[in-house]
């Protein structure tokens, strides 16, 4: 009987550990001009801190002479980095970090910068959680939900709210494209027309479908959506 209780206790402990992984703090470092994906398998990303700039002379200075690095500003931080990274990554299971001035601004001209992000993986991803899909102009986007669940469009924009590192074919046009190209109300209405309350749908990211909110700017379609039960919907 005593042996049975010990085995049962060990089994319960093992199951508990498997169900709730340790929420250790993880770090990501991206040198200016680079990109890196962060991922939480079956869990959601929670951003703890994010800094774009330079606070250490020795980080991301490979291949450069120390005399150049000595001139860098090491008290350099972009103002809105945390808010931008949270908007890009928070509550998703994975996202891609880009370290460039188009995303965060240039807080110290002439200094080579880098992005540092601290995050943890929390909770469990469920169909009710908001997902993000993004596709470049003149391409198609497919949204799909599991069986017995329907698409609920939360937010959509066909335009451009980021620099040319998103759907930009490199950095061409970075100084001329409108990065405040918002078409959210109309975009959401159009996305709902084709996708709302369906298990799956296909969206064409074209001017013909969504209109042209900023002529001359290469656009992309971004949609945030949930998969809600057919009966009862999401809370």
UniProtKB/TrEMBL annotation:
One GO molecular-function entry = carbohydrate binding
Residue stretches making up the SUEL-type lectin domain: 29-122, 135-228
Keyword Signal set for record: yes
Please tell me whether the keyword Signal is annotated for this protein.
yes
What InterPro entries does the record point to? Lectin_gal-bd_dom (IPR000922), Lectin_gal-bd_sf (IPR043159)
Q: Where is the signal peptide?
A: 1-19
User: PROSITE patterns this protein is in?
Assistant: SUEL_LECTIN
**Could you tell me the keywords of this UniProt record?**
Signal
Q: What is this protein called?
A: Galectin
In its UniProt entry, the species of origin is given as Pocillopora damicornis (Cauliflower coral)
